Write the structure tokens for this entry.
Amino acid sequence: MTTPLIEHFRDLLADRAGPCVSIYMPTARRFPETQQDVVRFRNLLRTAENSLGNLLDEQALTALLEPLHELAVNDRFWTHTLDGLAVLRAADLYKVYKLQRTVPERAIVADSFHTKPLLRIMQSADRFELLALTREQVKLYHGNRDSLDEIELNPGVPRTLQDALGHELTEAYSGAATVGKAGRDPSHGNVSFGIGNRKDELDKDTERFFRVIDRAIMDYHSKRSGLPLVLAALPEHHATFREISHNPHLLAESIAGNPEAASLDELREKAWQVVQPRYLARLQGFMDEYGAALPRDHASADLNNVAMAALGGRVRTLLVDDDRVVPGRVDRETGQMTLGDADDAEKDPHMDDVLDDLAELTLRMGGDVVMVPHDRMPSNTGVAAIYRF
């Protein structure tokens, strides 16, 4: 699974020469519903192609859309989908994201990418990663309160003990051999030729394997995602891994048991039990910080004030109501807000959302965005901004 990361998103926000194609659609996880996914994708691709026909000559159009047409006939891809799909294409960029949450169906051709659906998923506060570790192999999952799916490991992460240690793997013997000094005559006493204890050698290999995995997961995944990491492993492996781990994202609580013996849903439920207290505490921390900053004018929930503050780079953290839409637009250059209404949103499926525009502007100016459930928002406007100064 290709997981959207913050550096990907900043790249998507970068100024580039258009046109940019953005295709979003909900997808099914199971057959036979998956059969309709490729049909809908081809229809959306045709919509984008029609829009591009007036902008590009035939050669440029073919070059731009070639990878999307290849995706449309990739049977293996369409039999392994999740809940949503985002496909983004420009002359200098091609990204395909399988999403754990559904998204509205749309195909948009513009001078920049349509990133709002991706932003809402990526900035949700309930996301985590789960490291399923045994002595023989490792798997990594991306999850939230509702879903858990395996991540394709970076090539720099060994998949198995053999991959990690290779020719350095210890040759452990089953035990010591005992023979007499003079053949088999017991009167001459015995000598033990024990070349290492099997358990000791296995433990050494396990520790070395865990050390390699810890560094690789941190370097290639945790540093990039910044997500809390839950360990799932046999009880006897927890202490060993924690003793050698230097990953600051590894949570203190973990899942005890063989991860290979549990279903995905069982792992997700157990992982959420670990993550939920931290998730709630993190949200409460934002609420407390906002409440303390508000009387000092270091915070605001007023949409116009937040827009101007975001444009000036003053917004350090923007809390956004995950369940609310405010139809309208925010001008990237001036911060000027143009509000629409529910009827406008119904008539124009491309109508922007002010909340998403504010979130995008905040990210562009180096701030952080956190999507928050409606019942935990500290304001009724859809946003709550905490200022840097």
Notes: Residues 297-387 form a domain with the 60s Ribosomal Protein L30; Chain: A; fold (CATH 3.30.1330.30). Residues 12 and 293 are 32 Å apart (CA to CA).
